[in-house]
Structure formats: C-alpha cells, structure tokens
Amino acid sequence: MEKLIITAAICGAEVLKEHNPAVPYTVEECAREARSAYEAGASIIHLHVRRDDGSPTQDKERFREVMAAIREACPGVIIQPSTGGAVGMTNDERLQPTELRPEMATLDCGTMNFGGDEVFENTENTIKYFGRRMIELGIKPELECFDKGMIDMALRLHARGFIAAPMHFDFVMGVNGGIDGSLRDFLFLRESIPSGATYTVAGIGRREFPLAVAAIIDGGHVRVGFEDNVYLSKGVLARSNGELVAKVARLAAELGREVARPDEARKILSI
Ligand code: KMH
Ligand code: ZN
Fold it and tell me: Which end of the chain is more exposed for a tag (fewer CB within 10 A), N or C?
C-alpha cells in the first residue's frame, strides 16, 4: 500500500485559545506548531493565518511571513494555504495566498450551513473562478468536500476543464451543516471518487481518529490538527498539533502503514 500522507491543519479560522491554549495565532506560534507536526510525521501543513489577536485574515503579507517561518522550521514541508478563509470573506480576499504560488491550496466545492446563521458560500462560479486560477498558477488543489454533492460538483467542473487531474479530495466529515462522520458515510464518499484520484479524510471532533483509522486501512490519507479537533482523547486536550499527528503515526505503525515524508507525498500527489 502507498505510504500515508499526514496533513496537519494547525490553526483553522474558528478555533480559539479558549478551546485549547496551544492554538497558534502569532508567526512564532504557527512555526512552533508546524514544527511539532512535521517532527511527528506530517508532510503537509494546511494553513490559515491569524492576526496576533486571533482574528482570521487572508492577508497575503501575513501568509508570506508565516510561510517563511514554517519553511525554516520544517525543511521541505508542503504548505497548503486555505482559500476558504473564514465565513463572510470575499472571493478575492480569500484568494490572496495563491499569489504566493504555493504548491497546493484548498478549493472548496460547495455552499453549506456552518452552524447558527453562518453560511460558507461557494457558488458554482466561485469554484470555477478558484479552479481556473489554480490551473493558471500551477497550484494543486485539495478539493474540500463537506458533502457528497460537492464531490459531484468537482467531477462536473473537472469534466469542463476547471479542475485538473489527478484530483485530490479532502472529505471533511462531521461539520455542523455537512455530512456526518459515520463509517457508512465515509464509504459512500470514498466510493464516489474516480479510481485515479487520491483522498484525505478530516474528521471533525470525536470523528477524527476513527476516520483516520478507516483511511489508514483503506489506503487513503489523513488530516488532523487543531482546526478539526483539539482533543487527544476524550476530555484530554492535545498539548500540540504534534501530539495529534503522533497519534495517527502510531495507529499507522500498528496497522502496518508507513508514513510518507514530504517528497514522497509530492510523488503520491503528482505535485
Ligand atoms: N474556515 C472555513 C469557513 C478551507 O480551509 O478551505 C473554511 C475552511 C475550508 O476551513
Ligand atoms: Zn481550513
């Protein structure tokens, strides 16, 4: 079986230090958290950035600074900026980190409720706009699918030339407004992507580790990190993103799956 790519979503846009004091806001904190994840086996850092007060931003200069600090702390790591940003941001605001020509970036494949009155908006034209931009800039999109219909949208837009092959999906499962994170739902999503595609699964909250095990067994890849879950186990806060990654690496070792380093991840993803 292919080696396992572990992505660390170290920061997110919504989770706060009130949820876990180790959530990074500053440049130094982001580098520290990325380093802990990298040392534990992460080869991709999925990145949101914050201002020092914790408020989310897609400011290009903030991304530039944080990405430079992460590159120094984690030689060779793949940095995958978010183009999802936070609910309510405009498309062009969200796209700013693509101007830095990262190897990868996220591409969110549909609109969804995001708890309470929040709506995370990604119209068809938005997805086309982001997809075309990534093709032009040579950026590998990670196709964020929070529901089955978003996979269908990605496949339609691939057929129409807005998303290049080989496609790489991220099943984000368990968000309040998206698909749940049961094993049945996982199998439904993974059977809905083409045979040449790869996927990562990001389980939210208590779904994180059971879905990680499902992907490890199935030959998929895994995302963990404070963006998705701040607990190492029930009631026990993780002290770092590295602790979450290390748990996945341990599970993989027990199940006989080796963990990929960044250059191996590049090969698997055709970057
Ligand atoms: N923060 C969410 C609204 C992504 O990174 O592309 C969107 C998100 C997805 O986190
Ligand atoms: Zn994200």
Answer: N
